[in-house]
Amino acid sequence: MRVTSGIFKGKKLLSPQVSGLRLTEEKVRKAIFDVLGSYIIGKTLLELFAGSGSIGIEAFSRGAKEVTFVDNNISCIDTIKKNVPLELKEKSALLHYDFFRAIEHLDSINKKFDLVIMDPPYKSDLIVLVLKKIYQSDILPPGSLIIVEHHRDEKIISPSLYGLELLSHKRYGASCVSFFKFLDKKDGKSK
Question: pTM of this prediction?
């Protein structure tokens, strides 16, 4: 597994030795960032279910300002520590939490993000729980983006309930990626 573009293009990334872990394929990761284009430059990213940290490291490679990596598996956290280039350690935060506790913690310290990317285990019913928790928090200002990788058979029911507007939906084999804009909770409109 390698970084697909940017200043760290070609950098080899380690994979955590975790049974049943499914990492985002390089072609899917590249497609996500090709859609984002220059939007990522100077942005703060929250990567939930981070696994190897490949999404966040790709974001850094393409110009992200800060990345917070969240995973509840210590083997994943240890792998991310090894994968993040030394010069980016000060711009990175690693949280060994489940998504629920991580969002509560980030909300309590008034941390804000321009972008959330998540890749929860397929068919785990976690997507709706995460979207609800994000909506109940104040970690995203209006206009922020949420990107969800999920199995093609998983549908994100009524994203508007969680203050989201579907921007696009792309399929890559068994994987799908849904791009959402976070709306203003007060009036239900995007800014």
Answer: 0.91
